[in-house]
Amino acid sequence: MSCQHLVCAQCAHPVIEGRCALCRANRERMHNHGFAGLPPALIVLLLVVLLFVTLAVKHLGGL
């Protein structure tokens, strides 16, 4: 989705122009997608899970 054709409910101008704080916040939120379209929190969670799986495999392999 793009903010080119969206109109701000607060200032009634196109969001892409960023005339008010709400426009700028929504424009930033829409254009900040993280890595591969995933939110940053999900990426961190996936990395932590990968770390635990790696440690578990390493620990079980040493038995």
Tell me what the structure shows.
The protein is an all-alpha fold. It has two domains: about 1-30, no CATH class; about 35-63. It contains two helices and no strands. The longest helix is centred in the C-terminal third of the chain and has 22 residues, at about 40-60. The mean pLDDT is about 85.
Radius of gyration: 20 Å
Low-confidence parts lasting 5 or more residues at pLDDT below 50? none
Count of helical stretches: 2
Tell me the series of helices and strands, N- to C-terminal: HH
Beta strand %: under 5%
State the helicity in percent bands: 40-55%
Mean pLDDT: 83
Please outline the major beta sheet: none
What's the overall geometry? rod-shaped
Give the total of beta strands: 0
Structural class: mainly alpha
Number of domains: 2
Separation of the first and last Cα atoms = 51 Å
Summary keywords:
63 residues, mainly alpha, 2 helices, rod-shaped
Task: List the SSEs and their pairings.
Layout: H1 21-31, H2 40-61
Give a short overview:
The chain is mostly helical. It contains two helices and no strands.
